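Dear support,

Our group has been running a series of protein-ligand predictions, and this particular one with zinc ion is the one our PI (initials K.S.) wants archived with full inputs and outputs. We had some confusion internally about which version of the output was final, so please treat the block below as the authoritative record. The input we submitted was:
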Amino acid sequence: MSKNKSEYLINRHDNQYEVVIGLEVHAQVTSESKLFSTSATKFGAEPNTQVSLVDAAFPGMLPVINEYCVKQAIKTGIGLKAKINKKSVFDRKNYFYADLPQGYQISQFKDPIVGEGKVILDMPDGQKEVGIERLHLEQDAGKSIHDLDPKNTFVDLNRSGVALMEIVSKPDLRSPDEVNAYIKKLRSIMRYLGTCDGNMQEGSLRADVNVSVRKKGSKEFGTRCEIKNVNSIKFMQMAIEYEANRQVDLIEDGQTIDQETRLFDTKKNETRSMRSKEDAHDYRYFPDPDLLPLVVSDDFIEKLKSEIPELPDEKKKRFIDKFKLSPYEANILVSDNETSNYFENVIKKSDVKLATNWIIGELFAALNEKNLEITESPISAGNLSKLINLIKDGTISGKIAKTVFEQMMEGDKDPKKIVEEKGLKQESDPKALEALIDKVIDDNRDKATEYKSGKVKLFGFFVGQVMKVSGGKANPQLVNEILKKKL
Amino acid sequence: MSIDLKTIKHISKLSRISVDEKKAEKLAGDLNSIFDFIEKLNELKTDNVEPLTSVAETTLKLRSDEVKSKNLRDQVIKNSPKENEDYFVVPKVIE
Amino acid sequence: MSDITKQSLSELVENIKSKKLSSSEVTKAFVERSEKSKELNAYITEDYANAFNKAKKFDEKPNLDLKLPGIPMAVKDLFCTKDLRTTAGSKILNNFVPTYESTVTQNIWNEGAILMGKLNCDEFAMGSSNETSFFGNVQNPIDKNLVPGGSSGGSSSAVAAQLTPITIGTDTGGSIRQPASFTGTVGLKPTYGSCSRYGIVAFASSLDQAGPMAQNVKDCALLQEVISTYDEKDSTSIDFKRNEHSKELTKDIKGKKIGIPKEYRVDGMPKEIEDLWKKGIEYAKDCGAEIIDISLPHTNYALPTYYIVAPAEASSNLARYDGVKYGFRAEGENLIDMYEKTRSEGFGTEVQRRIMIGTYVLSSGYYDAYYLKAQKVRKLIKNDFDDAYEKVDAILTPSTPSSAFKIGEKTNDPVSMYLNDIFTVPVNLAGLPGISIPAGHDAKGYPLGLQIIGKAFDEQNILNIAYAMEEKINFKNNITDWWIK
Ligand SMILES: [Mg+2]
Ligand SMILES: [Zn+2]
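Confirmed final output from the archive:
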């Protein structure tokens, strides 16, 4: 077994194989209109209602680039700590397909808009850096629908021409877990930047997964296979697992691996060769003569840099330094901008430690149960802050707070009002408590005697009884003090 | 240099134009004479020459992110060879 | 008023403005002559009824401030015209009706002109004789069975035969200037980026340019001024200060330096062409121009370069004709079969040949040897012109290496057909403006043209030189109306 507990290896007979993974992530640029045309990009529109004459490649139609998409790509590049190329070129990638109306995809081949960068992953055994090879802008294709008609394939071009950022990683990933962390981190960065909504159900984030295997310790790469267009992290992980094992089996069998494009069949949970794309591999890239080189100035880039918000890595560092959070807590709270904003709003007026625990614990569990995003939380940051203050100043106990919290989840109510209305205020009047405690001791004379004769464990019993009689409202600290005296 | 029938078949596949034996032979002949004439370029040494892709000595102009093209479904589908109100239709593709 | 169709554009505009003629009268005259001229096969699609309607509307409320008030006009069938079939001379677009208008034609209609119909051309503008058109070859009005040149052969024939007072063509490697030369008319290929390519069926995007074709230089200048606009819908359209060519037109070209490139004296050039060129030089001198010998050392490499660049771009530009969205579709067993049959039946021989060449030069393993090489040589060719323009204001050459040839004479020899464009192609590769003006006749009485090449965006200068020389040359076209029975 491996000495490093997160190391992912495949064992066969006496051999250990390492899996080498590189990802080509296709992230849909958040924009109103398409990359080279003025039609809308909204998800879920009626088929072919967001298709301009340019998108459908009518004769004589020409591409005109969307400035906002260019800015979005550069911002993402900045977020990936990458080199921004002041001059980039759009190329045509030529192939025939029903959902590719032009017969070519406008992409960037030789001179992408963004060069090398990096992404830091927080893995259980420490940080890992994943290299970014490049980011380029390109057009999305349309959608072929094969199951509406027995004899025909239907084509919907709504997505045709939507701007994509293809983010190509170096082959630095080594396990399905790292792929999970990588995609989540990438998504988090882009969401912070507002450059891609990262919605995988809607296809805003897909990846081509390049997988190869090699004997542990080997420096050379094995032959890789590219698994096309996988649209969920779970499927990526399953596909990698299947594909890596398939390749190991082939090697162990003395066979060679063909470099090829494969498809992940989500029903059978296996990858298989894509024969339909077999002879389409000569893409005949050349600079698109309908477009000129894209040149951006230093000022243009500097302006965008000034618009970049604090990103997850920096925010995490600040949370650890300033609020003394653990790296684990910080990681969770910075995973997306909305969560960290919520957290920062709560702690504006309440205790950090308590707030962290309540958000990561109660709130996340409750949201999860109701399948809600943080932005949809029934409890506003302000009200959670109030609840925490009620605990902190002793108005209610932690236990009562949970009851109040549950009420708040039913609708955003002011916790103070709930406490008042339901009479949940903590009993902290020593006289009232004394009377209560006297009654409990009186009712349990025999147990009190046992306690005095040395059965100290019974202390807990008395606390419990007092709390029960008080309906949970007794101030636990005071109860302890008084009980000790009285017993 | 000579372009053989195998190459002609390969190019015809890439360009999605069907070519039978007779047509392939004719094309091979034509292309060979055209490429004989094109080979003249090899007389020139161009190692240090910047390739020219556009004579327009300017850079790309950027348009603003506005939706101007509204729903044109009727217009874009109107000319399509297969009748369907909502979709373009092609022979079944099996992936 | 008799002989309306013999009038130049400028005369027609004048007569309509002074109300001596109505748009309806003019339209009727050109339509009638077009109807009598079917044998020339200049039209692919006629739109006469619409033209009459528009002329009538114009006459009811004439706007005489426009530059082309009520002027009827037929245009090359490469320009998309809203609600009127646009075929690009191809079977694959046989039934295609655009829902949009090209910028260039829109500019023309905005100035009051009226569309009469769409003119024949080589399929996707690929050809030098109009013989590759799916709609049949076009006759040169000069002589039966003579090609009108190409690819704007329907346009050159229609202007020369006076079926339209003026027209527009497109020029990728000589497709305006060569047919102008073959028919004794004037044709201007503007600077790349001067006229919008929006709505023009693309052949080779980095070379295509629309331009005017006319009976004389002045008409040509007026139409150029109408069609040349900056267009946001074309990323290669260039925003520069455009001249009012017709107003600024002058015959005063004293002291203009005109270059004579020695490399254009190609092997086997007919003596008639050599003589024409010499005569042209004399005319230019008579106009007060200074003649300077120059060198364009890479001239010989222009055609091979062109026959890589243009087919490469075309192979990609024509990928959209796949039977899915519009146009002709052949039924197939599966998607690939449908594509292959559609494209094999929908495209003609020359188009298929060029798609093949283009696909080959871009394909893996050949890109550097061909496409990249061609782009580098293209740079050298452009550098030649840049160097030359350090010394001269314009360059004078023959337009074509021969006069018009017989229909069928060169169809079986693509290379000899391609050689037609030897003097025009370098101009497209360098993106420069070039104008062909009729300058004489060969022994058979066929017209011959001279080409004046300008600096980028210097259309006004070459129009002026052409205007001055036109007067000295005093060319008369021998057209006998042989096709009118
Ligand atoms: Mg890929
Ligand atoms: Zn991609």
